[in-house]
Amino acid sequence: MSANVSTPASIPTEPHSADLRRGVLPLLLVSSFWGLSGLVSTLAPTDASTTALAAAGMLLGGGLMLATAPGARRLLRTHDRRERLLITLGTVTVLAYQQFFYPAVRQIGVAEATVIALGSAPILAGLLARTVDRKPLPPRWLYCAPVAVIGCTLLIAGHGADNGVGPGAHSQLTGVILALIPGLAYAVTSTVASRLINAGNTPRDVMGAMFGGAAILAAPILAVSGVEWLATPRGLSTVLYLGLVSNCICYTLFGRALRYTSAAVATTLTLTEGAVGALMGVAVRGERLAPVAWFGLALLAVALFALCMPTRTIDTARPEASTPSDAALDPLRSRKPMS
What we know:
By secondary structure, the protein is mainly α.
C-alpha cells in the first residue's frame, strides 16, 4: 500500500514497528555514542585547543561522508536555488555546533553547557516546525518534550552540583550564549536535513553534503589552529573517535532516522546523550549523582518511554490521518520511506 493513499482506519499487524526499529532505536543508539564523546574528548592533549579539536573531527568525519556519498557532491553543486540555500545553511550550522559547544564547556562547565545546548534544541526544533514549516506538532510531543527537558536539566545540574561545579558558573552570560548557539544549530541542522530528505534526497547524500561542506570550511580553521598535537597517540585516538564515530557513523544513522520521525521528536530523543554522559561519569570516573539528578534521570526515562510507546488505536472518524503532512510529523505512525 502506498504511504500517500488515505484509507479507512486499519490496524497493521505490527503497528509502528518501522518507526520504532528504523527511527527511535537508531536515535537512542546514536545518542549513546554521542554521550561518550565528552569522556573521550578528555583524552585530547592539553595543547589541543577546542577549535582545533572540533575542526579535526569535522575534517575527518565530514570528508569521509562526502567521499562515500556520490550524491552528496551533486547536492553541493546543485543549481536549484532552494536546495543550495538549505545545503549552505546546514553546512554552517553543522560546523557551528562543534565550534561553539567546546568553548562553552570550558567557559561554564560540562554540565551547564550540555543542559543548555541539549535542553534548548528540542524546544527550538519544535518552534521551527510550527513557525517555519507551519505544521502542527504531535500532541504526544507537546506533553513529553517539556518533561524530558526538565528531566535532563535536573540530571545534569545535579550531576554538576555534586562534582564540584561552582554556582557562580551559571551567571557567566558569555558561556550561556555560547551554549545556546549549538542548541539552535542542532535544531536548524535537524530541520534542514529533514526537509531535504522529505524532498526526495537520500539521508546519506544529505548528510554527506552538509558535513562535507563543513569539512571544507574546517580545513583552514585546523591549519591556523595548529596540528602538532595530532601526532600524539592521545590526539590521534580522540580525533578518530570524534571523526569516525561521533560524526561519520552517528550522523549517517541520524539522517536515516529522520525519514521515520520529525526533527522535533529526534532532538528530544537525543536528550538521552545527557543521561549516558552522566552515567559514564559515574561508572568510569567515579563521579557521584545527587538525589535530584537521579530523579531527573527517572523523569527523562519516563518521558522518552512515553514518547516512544506505539499507539494502537486509530481514530476511524478521521480518514485523512494518514496524509503525508501528518505522517511526516508523527514518528509514532508507520509509513514507508520516500524513494
